[in-house]
Known about the structure:
The structure holds two protein chains of two kinds.
Chain A: H1 2-19, H2 24-46, H3 55-71, H4 76-98, H5 103-123, H6 125-128, H7 152-174, H8 176-186, H9 188-193, H10 198-224, H11 234-247, H12 253-272, H13 277-291, H14 296-305
Chain B: H1 2-31, H2 40-56, H3 61-82, H4 92-114, H5 125-128, E1 130-132, E2 137-139, H6 140-162, H7 164-174, H8 176-181, H9 186-207, H10 218-221, H11 223-233, H12 238-258, H13 263-277
Antiparallel strand pairs in B: 1-2
Helix pairs in contact in B: 1-6, 1-9, 1-11, 1-12, 2-3, 2-4, 2-9, 3-9, 6-7, 7-9, 11-12, 12-13
Amino acid sequence: MRLALDLALLAGALGLMWIVPDQLAFLTRVLIMILLVLSLDLVVGFAGIATLGQAAMFGSGAYAAALFALHVSAEPLSGLVVGMAAAAGVAFVSGLALLRAKALTLLVLTIAVAEVLQEVANQADTVTGGADGLGGYLMAPLLGAEFDLWGRTGYLYALGVLALCFAFARRLAGSPLGLALRGIREAPDRMHALGTPVYWRLVTVYTLAGGLAGAAGALSAQTTELVSPAAFDFSLSAEALIMLILGGTGRLYGAILGTVLFMAVHHFAAAVDPFNWLFAIGALVLAVVFLAPAGLVSLADRWVRR
Amino acid sequence: MSILLAILVDGVAYGMILFLISVGLSVTMGLMRVINLAHGGFALIGGALAHLALIRLGLPWAVAAGLGVLGTVAVAVVLERAFYRHIYGRPELEQVLATVGLAFLMIASVNLALGSSLLALPAPEWMRGSVDLGVRTLPVHRVVVLAAGAAIALALWALVERSRFGIRLRAAVDDARAASALGIDTGRVYAAAFALGAGLAALGGILGAELLPIEAYYPLRYLVLFLFVVAVGGMGSIAGSLAAALALGVLDTAARYLVPDFGTIFFYLGTMAILAVRPRGLLGRA
């Protein structure tokens, strides 16, 4: 059942390449955003860590991949690994300090980490290009396939990475670590009393999810061949969280559903009325809060059960 | 010496603005346990209404400011009844989503009515000069902000510590169920505290328009700032909000004066340092 759904999603994503071949740049952005929201689901949905700073890891991955492409090698896969490693490193180090905090303090600290990194990217202009960002690097072919003008290679690349990361997230969710995290989310004191090293479990998932967010950042840097300090934006973290809650937390599919719906509504509403599209987003968000408070995935549950 | 004084005056004035806008957020987060990410929207609504009254209707500044605050209180009362009441007690993430959705609608409404450009709110003639305090001269605007902030902090203290309403409010914050069992109408206490907080945010938005310019995206642009004040002060603590707002105001201003290139880094690092030492905020309860 699950496998059939996964394959159907994958086939649908591939089919879009023929249905809307002129929208691949936008669709690639959607895939990258799904990956970022997926990483957030591991942190927020499974572990219950309140964060508005996932952009810290997205931006780290993006800058690491761009710097790697500029100075070391333009080969995409090694750049992806470098981006993931850099983001996981940032997540590990910041997580060591952050994850002792709780609730609002934790939320504010995650924001602060992303803002500090953004300021560093802004100020260290000899390395990061400052406010203009980094560009001017051309990615080498991916396994022999050139990054073409229509974005086909970029789209397939992002889709492949997303599929692998999704499989990884699913394995993680079902693993002993995933179960421990759900326990920590529901009753941290009880898990502590049972002997679970709560703090280290949280650091572990924060680091792993940071690596996924870094993959999203690296994909963004590689497919657009441009990075700017906006990769660390608070609004990116906030939008990712909104998309996740829209879809439903702790479900993995929620990350896909919420992101696709949010970005589709944004895309079409902005095309119809570039000035008043925020009404559509606001209405969508409120409709979900009051009609399907557990997220859109919960609607699908009801339908499946019937 | 003079630069230190300038930092102090500007920093404290900025802190007072932050206090006015954030104190309502702190109280609602402490009292109703609502994560209200749309709180900055009340400062925006106050500023936008005052802008309309001042520029379009040509009313005097003080009247326009008064209308802005009263209009915002009216909007807040309606929203509390029609909207917020339904999200009390919901899980945090649903509150985040609901209030962000509301913030989007506030932004879109102001954008539709007044456009996305800056909404000018020029200070009146009498506020633009400077006043000689004997030791040195200060801009009147700063003096007004300092005086208004101090007066309101004092009035809030008296209201919370000395009035019957304050007793009910503190009881509801400490234990809402016990308070309602003792016959306190917690629903009305909530509504009154909410409207008061929104009115103060509107006043802060209007007085602080020079520092935090009023425009449609205001609620989300400065959201981080307001959340920082609440977290550093300690959720639900009025004195904590004042201390945090002043500390962050002076810190931010000092960083801007002394290390203009790295200003915001010091602001965030300072905040992180405070929260590392006091994870529940300066005056938050253990």
